[in-house]
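Lab meeting prep.
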Amino acid sequence: MATKFAARSQAAARYLSMPPVMPKSLRYLRALLLVMAILLALNTIDRLGVVLTYGPSDGTSMAVGEGLLAIAGCTFLLACVGAFFLLGVTAKRSWWLTLALPLLAIANIAVAFAIIPADHVGVGLVLDAYLANGLLTVVLVVLLLKRPVRAYFGITRPAAATKAA
């Protein structure tokens, strides 16, 4: 009877234990993801406005151009919001999925420059591509690769190979 009670109390203690303290750089990273999501929402609306006003680049129909811009922008936006919530859970999978965000940033930039006509690529689009998609994504990766964040998710460096004598 005593062993049964001890097993139950250990199981209950395992579920009631406090999660590890979230590092400060991870809190900054989560805030950055929300800022990126807000900027991406505004940038996607602006890009769609440019395409609706001036039309897409030559050889692209209006529906395809609008659709590609909306899909690329909204996918990146939703991935940023999803990464915000994923990084609240201490699982290696959450860290690895967030590390894949730069691929969506590249796709978002490529679609914007392919669909928007070259005559109407202005300062706003260039700043959007380099600031919101480029620079903020680099900051995201740097924060994600910091040692306290990796340790929080249990990501460790591989052991150094020892030289044979």
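Slide two material, second protein:
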Amino acid sequence: MSECRSHSCFTFLWLSSSCGITGRKQAIGGWLLYFYYWVFALLFTSLQDIVRHPNVYSLSFRSDSVSHEALVLAVFPRLFVYIVVGAVATILLIKKEWMWVEHLRVVLSAGVLIAGFSFWLDVRYFPSSIRVNGIRWIGLCLWLLYFFVSKRVHHVFRTHDWDKFGGQVTTDS
């Protein structure tokens, strides 16, 4: 199963990278488009794990183990972050207003803190999850940074003049 999952991840990364590269000149293209792929892939993967193992993630699951409580505390807040980031990012995509970029920055900042706590729980109770969830946490940190420094984000959502600059290749295209 892990071989199938890694093949699926590779295929997804290849396709999304290709779309991001070919869409560099579009307003929602390049790294910005890749952000949307990333958010919804994380959300899909997290929900898929919960659906596949409902008894493990059930809040009513009775276990004397502290590990189960740690699992619930590690997974559900992180899932909530992905849902809220996905929702705010979708509203941003629809409305294309700077206010929603600022909201997304706040949500990503809170997400970094919440996912950092979840990662700490992983380090303490679930060492086999450290690599995957550490990469997800680093991803949140990098996307937060992206939404603060991206020229594309500024031109698409603040000044609404990407069409003037879209033909040029920028550092974040």
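Talking points for slide two:
The chain has one domain: 2-165.
The helical segments are 2-22, 30-52, 54-57, 66-95, 98-125, 130-149, 151-158, 162-165.
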